[in-house]
UniProtKB/TrEMBL annotation:
It holds the Pfam family adh_short_C2. It comes from the Bacteria. The keyword NADP applies. Residues 17-200 form the Ketoreductase domain. SMART domains: PKS_KR. This is SDR family oxidoreductase. InterPro entries: DECR2-like (IPR045017), KR_dom (IPR057326), NAD(P)-bd_dom_sf (IPR036291), SDR_fam (IPR002347). Keywords: NADP, Oxidoreductase.
Length: 271
């Protein structure tokens, strides 16, 4: 995992801050964890697989020493609540919560089972709510940030993505409602909606693992390329920084203009 270099954001931007990242063992969220560690934060990454979590923690430690790897399924509220409490014991009150746990696979509506639909909604939407709800009492108020990773599917109807579109639309509305409710406590709540992200499992699944498909997908993006985990991490770092102190209740697309171009036929979002 690499981080963006050079950065326009100052060194030590998150010094003394504590960040808790669900789905932090791979892809977009691992990139965010590495960038936060590089910026001086104490980082807790949460995943479902203990071995994968430890490998990810070793990667994050290349950028900063204060890293904690925990395991829990975000669909299991009790387990998630226990993990958050462990993080708070080690790293103190939570300054930044990143909701990144997600599941996805391409399937038309008639080709997905009720259980398959439910699994994606439970991981993406219920898991995001569970993390927010369990973390709220531990957020540093005022001054904390909650940021969720949505996708272009949250606003653009996309073929073979009825499950992800429904789940991410829910995540975006959850973001807005929590912004209304938690803003008075001084907690900022936002989301980003990436499009296609290079070198991620999401990209490999949704493009079918084909280089030709990936190149065709990139041609539908006005900027003619997909983003990277490092680029997304810079956007997230900005949004949780004092420079974004008045951005609240926003869902910010980071997709190279893909959504505004009206391309909803290719399932390119996800990390």
């Amino acid at each position: 995992m690499t981080t963006s270099n050079p950065s326009v954001l100052r060194d030590g931007l998150l010094a003394g801050k504590s960040a808790f990242i669900t789905g932090g063992t791979s892809g977009i969220n691992l990139g965010i964890a590495c960038r936060f560690a590089q910026a001086g934060a104490r980082v807790t990454i949460l995943g479902r697989n203990p071995e994968k979590a430890q490998r990810a923690a070793d990667e994050v430690r290349k950028f900063g020493p204060d890293v904690l790897a925990l395991t829990a399924d975000v669909r299991d509220y009790a387990a998630l609540d226990a993990a958050i409490r462990t993080s708070v014991e080690k790293h103190g009150p939570i300054d930044i919560l990143i909701n990144g746990a997600a599941g996805n696979f391409p399937a038309p509506a008639v080709g997905i089972s009720a259980n398959g639909f439910k699994a994606v909604v439970d991981i993406d939407l219920l898991g995001t709510f569970n993390a927010c709800r369990a973390a709220f009492e531990h957020l540093r108020k005022p001054g904390a940030n909650v940021l969720s990773i949505s996708a272009t599917q949250g606003s653009v109807p996309t073929l073979a993505q009825v499950h992800a579109c429904s789940a991410k639309a829910g995540v975006e509305m959850l973001t807005r409602v929590l912004a209304l409710e938690w803003g008075p406590a001084g907690v900022r709540v936002n989301a980003i909606a990436p499009g296609g992200v290079e070198d991620t499992e999401g990209m490999r699944r949704l493009s079918g693992g084909s280089e030709e498909s990936r190149k065709k997908g990139a041609e539908t993006v006005p900027l003619k390329r997909f983003t990277t985990c490092a680029e997304l991490a810079e956007v997230v770092l900005f949004l949780v920084s004092p420079a974004a102190a008045y951005i609240h209740g926003a869902v910010i697309p980071v997709d190279g203009g893909h959504a505004i171009a009206g391309f909803g036929t290719l399932p390119m979002g996800g990390g």
